[in-house]
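Handout, page 2. Input:
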Amino acid sequence: MWCIGQITQEYRERMYELLALYRRPLNPEEPVVCLDEKSKQLLADSRDPLPMQPGRPCRADYEYRRAGTCNIFLAVEPRGGRREVQVTPRRGKVDFVAFVTKLITGVYARAKTVHLVLDNLNTHFRACFEDILGERLTARLLRRVEFHYTPKHASWLNLAELEIGIMERQCSGGRVADSLFLEAQIKAWQRRRNRAKSMIDWKFTRRDADRKLAHHYVP
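Output:
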C-alpha cells in the first residue's frame, strides 16, 4: 500500500462499491466476475535442457532466445470457484470484445446479470464494443452486464490479479517458447482449479479500508 497517495472521493466511492460487491453471497443468477489480462514473453532455450532423472530435476541453461509475446485473458468468479482463461496473440479491443462475448453468451449465458469487474485500461469500455460490434449488437450483448471499475491506480481491487498471481506460480510463470504449449498448460490448470472449485477468500472490508487508508483520504 506504500504507493498510495491522496485518495479522492471518486476513489473511495469505487472502492466501497467493489468491497460491497465482494461481500455479496453467491448468486448464480448474478455472478461477480473479475477480468484482467497479462502479457507473456515467450522464451526458447538456447541449449537443450538436461532431462529430469530420478532424484534430479530438469536443468536448463540461463541463456534464452526471445520467441515473441502473447496475451493471457483471465476471468474469475471469486465466490463461484470458476475461471475462464484464453491465450491470444494480442490484447487489443478486438481480442477483449471477443473474450467478453464468449463469457456472456457461453459461460454465463443463463445469468440474469453479470457483474464484471475491470480496471481502467482503454480497451475495457463500452465504446470499444460499439466500435467492433456496432451499437445494436452491443446493446443486445451488454444488456445483462453491469460494469464495475476499480479506482484509477488501484487495480489491486480487481481479484483477477490474485488469480493471475496463482496461475503464474502454479503454471505459466516458467520459460515457455510456444503459445500453443502455453495454452495447453493453462487449460489443464484451469480444469484442475475449476474441478476443485478453488475460490478466493477475500476478507478486506470497508472497515478495514477506513482503518488502514483513512490518513490518505482527501476531505
